[in-house]
Amino acid sequence: MAAAQTLMADRLGQALELPRGALVLDAGCGQGAVALRLAETLGLHVEGVDLQPDNIRSATRKAARRQALDRTRFQVMDYARLRFPDERFDGVYTLESLVHAPDSQAALRQFRGRRGLAASRRAWLRASAGLWLPAVRRRRPWPVVAPPPAAG
């Protein structure tokens, strides 16, 4: 994992403010680098979804090599049409992929709605422009803020 991606994953993990063992959705997980980092460094359980079967195969192979299959699971799925039980996740994040979603509003509804976050949980969305969008399940608009502060 490149240094910039490691820093981004670490800052994301801090921003989620979730305890070890919390279940998080990685929407648009790619080859699983961020999911694996969060599982290994913070003890989170991460379910990654991506539309590309090759990405899912790669992520699953990486998780097996790194002995992280007990904390990560990857599957082909459209994150605008999640097939999970209601309010399954303690946290949701998407990094650099929401801008490619054919219907980003449908995806956001999934993250906030019944198929996504449990009530009062956290979501972090990172647009390719570098903006972090914190999302706590609520009725008012999600504010745009600066990146979470670095530890230190």
Which descriptors apply to this entry?
single chain, about 150 residues, alpha/beta, Rossmann fold, 6-stranded mixed β-sheet, about 30% helix, globular
Question: Strand order across the biggest sheet?
Answer: 3-2-1-4-5-6
Question: Any idea what the shape is?
Answer: globular
CATH class: Alpha Beta
Main beta-sheet strand count, sense and barrel state: 6 strands, mixed
Unreliable stretches: 127-148
List the secondary-structure elements in sequence, H or E.
HEHEHEEHEE
CATH architecture level-2 label? 3-Layer(aba) Sandwich
Structural class by sheet pairing and helices: alpha/beta
Architecture overview:
This protein has 152 residues and is an alpha/beta fold. It has one domain (3-136): 3-Layer(aba) Sandwich (Rossmann fold). The protein is built from 4 helices and 6 strands. Strands 3-2-1-4-5-6 form a 6-stranded mixed sheet, sandwiched between helices. Helix 2 (33-42) links the parallel strand 1 and strand 2. Helix 1 packs across helix 2 (33-42). Residues 127-148 have low confidence and may be disordered.
